[in-house]
Amino acid sequence: MESDPLLEMRQELDRAEEARLSPWACPSRAAVRRRPDPVDATGHRQSFALDADRVLHSLAYTRYIDKTQVFSLMPNDHITHRVLHVQLVSKIGRTVGRFLGLNEDLIEAIALAHDIGHPPFGHDGERFLSAKCREHGLGPFLHNLQSVHFLERVEKGGRGLNLSLQVLDGVLCHDGEVHSQHLTPRRDKSFATLDAEMAAKQEDPHLALIPMTLEGCVVRMADTMAYVGRDLEDAIRVGLIRREMVPEEVRRVLGDTNGTIVYRLVTDLIRTSRGQDYVAFSPPVGEALKALKAFNLEHIYLNRRIKSEHAKIEEAFARLFDRYLADLEGGREESPIFRDFLEGMSEEYRQATPPAAVVRDFVAGMTDEYFLAHYRELVCPRRLPARFGP
Question: Residue 81: beta bridge partners?
């Protein structure tokens, strides 16, 4: 049988990759999937590059474009949305990975996928949706668990993307809101471990999970580096805070602009982690980062000025959830949950997913504007036609 030159080139890329990567990196040939994948086995793309492509072309990735990062309902085109955030995480992560000799394709795949499960209206939306999930016996809603769920069981009509264990593990363990100064990967994981950690995290949302690859650890650090200075700039841009309010201990070590903050965090992480089987910030930089995150929490994320409409949003989550659940249980096939979601899902998904979980998946996948449009349709009277037909 005639050999495939593209497959031979891929094999050469794999060999060259293993020769140049750090001994602590995860090579592409180490990728493990839950089920056999003929595209990965015979295609020209390396395994983690294939994963990144699958995420990039997913429907959930497309919906990043209108999902809130921090500031909701603000008519400002320069405010960060989630699509930009994941691109920044990818860029920062790949820069760090290049200097540390890590697998940039794996970093990119984890970074692009890590927030796939975020609902509309950011972390506040996550909290509102979580309350409804608990009410209906689903347990707390956690966007990292939902991200893995989307990637494995919702995308492609419920068939999932069949991503590698290393990517799914990095998505599950990203927890960028948790302050991490030092991360050492826990490599001895399998799909059974992934399933067990998801179940344990569902039981205890505060459970600390550590990625199985150094690349996953880098993405977790990059997540923080991508948002902490950017959120500061957004808050200044909309007049929520002033630059001179940044604490002196932060200004002295990290600076007070996003560009300077990211540069100093990246260079410190590279210097501290180079040649090590861990990623870490130096103690002074780690402490300054912790202080900046505390400042952002108090002055931005918990600031009541950006939450003036949140009681209405919370009510909208409750009413939409209840309406769609009633539509499902009542078999009202004209409802958006049938028309825009279930009609495209496999029979396996329909049979395996209880009604409340279907509603969770539908609502979690919404963009901010789609959510608001359907809430307006629910509560606002519509004009009747000027003349009724026969």
Answer: 68
Cα separation, 229 vs 232, in Å, equals 5
Tell whether domain 47-306 is in CATH 1.10.3210.10.
yes
For the entire predicted model, the pTM comes to: 0.95
CA distances from 155 to 5, 36, 290 (A): 32, 18, 36
Cα atoms found within 13 Å of the Cα of residue 223, Cβ hemisphere only: 26
Task: Report whether pLDDT(1) > 70.
Answer: no
SS3 of the chain: the string is CCCCHHHHHHHHHHHHHHHHCCCCCCCHHHCCECCCCHHHHHCCCCHHHHHHHHHHCCHHHHHHHHCECCCCCCCCCCCCEHHHHHHHHHHHHHHHHHHHCCCHHHHHHHHHHCCCCCCCCHHHHHHHHHHHHHHCCCCCCCHHHHHHHHHHHHCHHHCCCCCEHHHHHHHHCCCCCCCCCEECCCCCCCHHHHHHHHHHHHHCCCCCCCCCCHHHHHHHHHHHHHHHHHHHHHHHHCCCCCHHHCCHHHHHHHCCCHHHHHHHHHHHHHHHHCCCCCEECCHHHHHHHHHHHHHHHHHHHCCHHHCCCHHHHHHHHHHHHHHHHHHHHHCCCCCHHHHCCHHHCCHHHHHHCCHHHHHHHHHHCCCHHHHHHHHHHHHCCCCCCCCCCC
Nearest to 66 by CA among 317, 365, 308: 365
Compute and round to an integer the Cα radius of gyration of the chain: 22
Indicate if the pLDDT at residue 136 is higher than 90. yes
Q: State the pLDDT at residue 172.
A: 97
Q: Where are the domains of the chain?
A: 47-306, 310-378
Please choose, from the candidates 24, 76, 66, 32, the residue with its C-alpha nearest in 3D space to the C-alpha of residue 51. Answer: 32
* Adjacent-strand bridge partners of 164: 33
- Report the range of poorest mean pLDDT among 77-81, 142-146, 219-223, 236-240: 77-81
Q: Report pLDDT for 177.
A: 64
* Residue 285 predicted with pLDDT over 60: yes
